[in-house]
Amino acid sequence: MRDTQDFDFDVLIVGGGPVGMLLASELRIARVDTVVLERLPERTPHSKAFGLHARSLESLDRRGLAERFRDGARSWSNGHFAGLDVWVDFSLLDSAHNYALLSEQTRTERLLEERAQEFGCEIRRGHEVTAVRQDDNGAEVDVTGPDGAYTLRGRYVVGTDGGRSLVRKSAGIGFPGTGGRVTARLADVVLADRENAPMGMERTQRGLLFCVPLDETYHRVATFDFEHGKEAGSELTLEEFTDSLRTIWGDDLGASRPRWLSWFTDSACQAERYREGRVFLAGDAAHTHFPVGGQGVNLGLQDAFNLGWKLAADIHGWAAEGLLDTYDQERQEPARKVLANTRAQIALMNPDPYVTQLRELFQDLMAKDQVNRHIAEMLSGVRVRYDLAGPEHRLLGDFARDLRLKTDEGDETLPEFLHRGTFVLLDLAGIPEVSAVHDEWAAGQEWAGRVRHVVAACEDEPGLAGVLVRPDGYIAWAADTSAPAAEIADGLRTALATWAGTSGR
């Protein structure tokens, strides 16, 4: 390897899908020199994923991006769980974004790529990474591009390169899980009788059918076959797909003119760890599962929101000891829960008649608002809460809601203060110790602007003295006005040192 300080970029991102593009934009707003290396010369027009859930939309809103994604996109207030007849009601969510947004993966990728480019990120398409190496001080990748082979060196490499991740394999990170038993055959096709096509998820005695319109011409149609698998590496043909339709549905729906054919299984795997030295994993490189409930891309976007500011903290020299390790600690559990609920859905989708009574029981339960809300929170990601150290408080580790704030500038909301990816210290009760601790901490920092101190009144939380919100929107400290002043000061001082760090370069 070359000289340990001879870096071409701070961070090398391998894989230019939505997760890689979001991570790039998160790093660039924190002034981290970043490059994205994507093997495909052009963005793929096809999308397995086509929905954004509440937690993703909340997070995008905290970067001022929610309206960009909502513009021209359809939304809906319900979804399915295991194809049951009782719908999941997202309007029950306690969120400003209590709906699902139709945003195909290729559209999401484009919007996030535009965002990364707005902040000056270099994106190299048609550049395939062929090897990854690391030492104690950095990592480098071998790349084959349109003009030949070359090597890049960075402080860190992040693999967002999918379920067959070269980065993960190069780092020697295991990827245990369960093999595939269900084969899904998917196609974007024209249907002969568009007006009378089935809608949503339908269960039959032989499997399941999924069918939704994508535009005025094409439908997304998928069959879920519990009996007939496919040989690994084989291609799906239109003939095989229509045969599957006749087997599962009893009719091929007159499917023709495919613009995309693909297949996958219910294999579910999770990386043993998301970090190995200078190498990190995010998105499908860290976890794969059956794409039921529209959770995959959303899970990966949350990885990027969690990792970006932590890498920036380390690169700028102010990260407290162990900060980078919290990425793995915090993001493993949400993925485990997604893998668990997708496996549960597959079990409920099984066409075996013995499962029918279980489905009926589940539907009776889902008719109750409390159960329906629980499942809506699970699918949308809003149940995620991190187990953070610090003085116990009902809000600690939770995602900061859209608090309405009255400041000297007028009426504002919390997301507006997070657009630039900084910490936000909300001082809500005018307790002198809160301002004093912030000023004491800021006086010793070379880049004190990483914590934005906001003095405001908040009718939504009348008993709250203050909160420290991390750049990813999660609460790192909170205290009530009933707490002793010394306890408030000590808790805030510890939280600032733990999360907002020390003097940087």
Automatic annotation (TrEMBL):
GO molecular function list: FAD binding; oxidoreductase activity, acting on paired donors, with incorporation or reduction of molecular oxygen, NAD(P)H as one donor, and incorporation of one atom of oxygen
Keyword Methyltransferase found: no
Keyword annotations: FAD, Flavoprotein
Transmembrane spans: none
Top-rank taxon: Bacteria
InterPro entries: FAD-bd, FAD/NAD-bd_sf, RIFMO-like
FAD-binding domain mapped to chain residues: 9-341
Cofactor(s) the protein needs: FAD
The name this protein goes by in its record: FAD-binding domain-containing protein
